[in-house]
Structure formats: structure tokens, C-alpha cells
Design brief:
It is a single chain. Strand 4, helix 9 and strand 5 form a beta-alpha-beta unit. The chain contains 14 helices and 5 strands. The chain is mainly alpha-helical and 325 residues long. It has 2 domains: 215 residues, HUPs (Rossmann fold, 3-Layer(aba) Sandwich); 79 residues, Orthogonal Bundle (Tyrosyl-Transfer RNA Synthetase), CATH 1.10.240.10. It is elongated. The strands form 2 sheets. Strands 1-2-3 form a 3-stranded parallel beta sheet. Strands 4-5 form a two-stranded parallel sheet.
Length: 325
């Protein structure tokens, strides 16, 4: 079995939503399938659609991979690579683009959203074609499972449809991948109650210092209920975020405190702050111990292995479409 997923380096940091929504589920999936190969690609070819500063894209890529390692991703087991080092990604993208109709692409959620906003002419061609490159990223390695966020599920479905179309035209070539989404982590809430996102400015970075974290926690809005009043934890954003860090026993105890009298929102926020600090300090310590060169060397090493697999797949594809005579 082969599990494949990507990370997009459009920022030089990751926030708690990235950890609980992507990194942790990926590690849990790896634990579940001990014998599976884990492919983790650096989606900087996708990142170029948003970030046009080469030096920043490079540093973002290194920082993000250092954070993945600091969060517990096993660099020996996870095959982490840069698709820009693998010509097969661009080659397969070209082939699949030739087989994909405009009407099919116009059903993409992000394009329809741009139409609704009247901004469709402002997006780049590559943003419009994003799902085709993503399909190439997936299909090139015969991935069985593709862990994605809820908003990316359509792109895996596009990859499946494109693969089926190719297989019907040129014989069985691509494995049909399955998306993997854990419903309980579909949406990680930010400090304002919406999905944690940089665009909402409601995030807590994994590398934030203690002073910044405390400030962000204090910004979480709460109700006007008094200390004496019992409270519903499921209606409190402080609890919803705090639950991410709790054991079942700790969660049960905190719920009891909410439902009884005597818990102030100030106490709840202080408890959340302590949990966040206890969680992030080991990550920050490990991050500081990983050098940039260690990540660069890893990418170069893995590129050789992955390129062999990609070249073999491209040769098979080229024979079937008569690119190779």
C-alpha cells in the first residue's frame, strides 16, 4: 500500500490547525498502516501560483519540512521529496492536460467561486489547472490512499475521474486513489470560532513565543455568563480548542467543571494557555535542533529514489500514447 499527500509552502510557519488537521492525522494513518509506504511531497510547484519570490519559496519549503520533522514525522520512513526535482510531474501534467476538457475544469469549486465574485479573469491559468497537476502528483506513483482536507476532496475526485478516462482510452495504467478524510478534524477552530486560517488572522503559530500565545488566547471571545453559572462546554470556543490537547480523562474532568459552578472564563483560558505551551515547547526545541542543510540533503537523496519510480511510470505512459515510438 502507498499513502501519498503533499504540503504547500506558501507560508514559513504552520499553525495549530495545520497540525491537528493534517500532520497528526497523517501520522495516525501511518501508525494504522505500518507496512505502507508514505510519500510526502513538497508542493512548491503549486505554491508558485501564490508566491512569486523564489528565495521566500525556498526558505518556506525548508521551514515547513523542519516543522513536520519537529512535530514527529519520521524522516526515515516518510519519503519526503520535491516534485520540481522530478521531471515526471511536469511530463504527466502535460499529458493529462491534453485529455481534460474545459467544461470538466469549470466545475472546480475555486473557479466557480471566482466566477461568483467576478474575479475569474484575475486568477492565473495555473490556478485554474491546479487539479490537473495534483492529479499528476497522485497518479504518477500509483497511490492507494490520499489524505486530504475536506476542501481538497474534490481534487482527489478529479484525479480519479482523469485516471478512469485515461485507463478507458489507453488501457489500464493508473491506480484509482481513495481520498482519506477524518471527519472529526475537518475544521479546526481559530480564536474567533471560524476555521483556523491565516486569512482570518485567527491562528496560533507553532513557533509563537509565550507572550504571543497568551495574547491570542486572551482574544478568544466568551459569553457573559458569570462564574456562578453552569456553562455548556460545547458552546464555548475556549473548550473546543482546549479539547484538542486533552486526554479522555482530562476532557471528562474539564466538562464537569464547565457544567458545575465556579469556573470562570479567565480560568478556562489560563488552562488552555498552559496546555498549548506544554504542547508547543518540545516542538520548538526540536525545530531549533534541525539544520537547513539537513533538509536540503534529505530532499536531494529522496529525489534520486523517487525519480526512478516516476521515470518507469512515464515510460509506460509514453508507450501507450505513442510518445515513444
Amino acid at each position: 500500500m502507498r499513502i501519498l499527500t503533499g504540503l504547500k509552502p506558501t507560508d514559513n510557519q504552520l499553525h495549530l490547525g495545520n497540525y491537528f488537521g493534517a500532520i497528526k492525522p497523517m501520522m495516525m494513518l501511518a501508525d494504522k498502516f505500518q507496512d505502507a509506504e508514505i510519500f510526502l511531497f513538497l508542493a512548491n510547484m503549486h505554491g508558485l501560483t501564490q508566491l512569486h519570490d523564489g528565495n521566500q519559496l525556498k526558505q518556506n519549503s525548508i521551514n515547513i519540512l523542519k516543522l513536520y520533522a519537529a512535530c514527529g514525522v519520521d524522516l526515515k520512513r516518510f519519503i519526503i521529496y520535491n516534485p520540481a526535482d522530478i521531471p515526471g510531474h511536469a511530463q504527466l501534467n502535460r499529458v493529462l492536460t491534453c485529455l481534460t476538457h474545459m467544461g470538466f475544469m469549470e466545475r472546480m469549486h475555486s473557479y466557480k467561486e471566482a466566477l461568483d465574485k467576478g474575479t475569474a479573469k484575475e486568477i492565473s491559468v495555473w490556478v485554474f489547472c491546479y487539479p490537473i497537476l495534483m492529479a499528476a502528483d497522485i497518479l504518477l506513483y500509483d497511490a492507494d490512499i490520499v489524505p486530504v482536507g475536506k476542501d481538497q476532496k474534490q481534487h482527489v475526485e478529479y484525479a480519479r475521474d482523469i485516471a478512469i478516462k485515461f485507463n478507458n482510452k489507453f488501457w489500464e495504467t493508473f491506480k484509482i486513489p481513495e481520498p482519506y478524510i477524518k471527519p472529526e478534524v475537518w475544521t479546526i477552530l481559530g480564536i474567533d470560532g471560524r476555521k483556523m486560517s491565516k486569512s482570518y488572522n485567527n491562528y496560533i503559530w507553532l513557533l509563537d513565543d509565550e507572550k504571543t500565545i497568551l495574547k491570542r488566547v486572551k482574544q478568544i471571545p466568551t459569553s457573559t455568563q458569570t462564574v456562578e453559572e453552569p456553562k455548556n462546554p460545547d458552546e464555548c470556543n475556549v473548550y473546543k480548542i482546549c479539547k484538542l490537547f486533552l486526554t479522555p480523562e482530562e476532557d471528562k474532568e474539564l466538562r464537569k467543571r464547565y457544567e458545575a459552578w465556579g469556573l470562570s472564563f479567565k480560568d478556562a483560558k489560563e488552562y488552555l494557555y498552559e496546555k498549548i505551551i506544554a504542547f508547543l515547547m518540545p516542538i520548538q526545541k526540536k525545530y531549533a535542533e534541525i539544520s537547513d542543510q539537513e533538509i536540503i540533503d534529505l530532499l536531494h537523496k529522496n529525489a534520486e529514489k523517487v525519480n526512478e519510480l516516476a521515470n518507469k511510470k512515464i515510460k509506460d505512459i509514453y508507450k501507450k500514447i505513442w510518445f515513444s515510438l
